[in-house]
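Exam revision sheet. Question 4 asks you to relate a sequence to its structure. Input first:
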Amino acid sequence: MPMREARVIALAGVFQASRLVRELATKGSADAASSEASLASIFRIDAASTAEVFGGIGGVRLGLEQLIAQLDDGTRDLPLTQLVLNVTRLARRLGRNAAMRTEVRAAVLWHQVGGGQFRLLLRRREYAMLARGLLARCTLDMG
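Answer key, structure tokens:
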């Protein structure tokens, strides 16, 4: 898997986790399949690829949809964007602590595959385009 796709999948994982947290906080419930994939990713520390961390590309479908909406569709949700940025900043800080590196999965994964805020800013449209391709692939895989 190309590194850019790995970055998009990891970033989609961050968007998905942030969206799920927000839904739980505001509505008291969240999408079960997306929640299961995000929670399971915490325990998949020996996955062969970024997609396998989430059980395949379909595991981050909600995150890919959110990433596209935030970066390219013009339907931005500012509080969600702020939450994602804060989570990635926190992951960077926690990543400096060896004991914490294994606890904050999607955001840590984003940094492990070379993701960063500056790169996200510069490659926003490219990441949205890759996310569209990954979302289409996951839709085809699911039938």
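Marking note for examiners. The CA atoms of residues 5 and 130 lie 7 Å apart.
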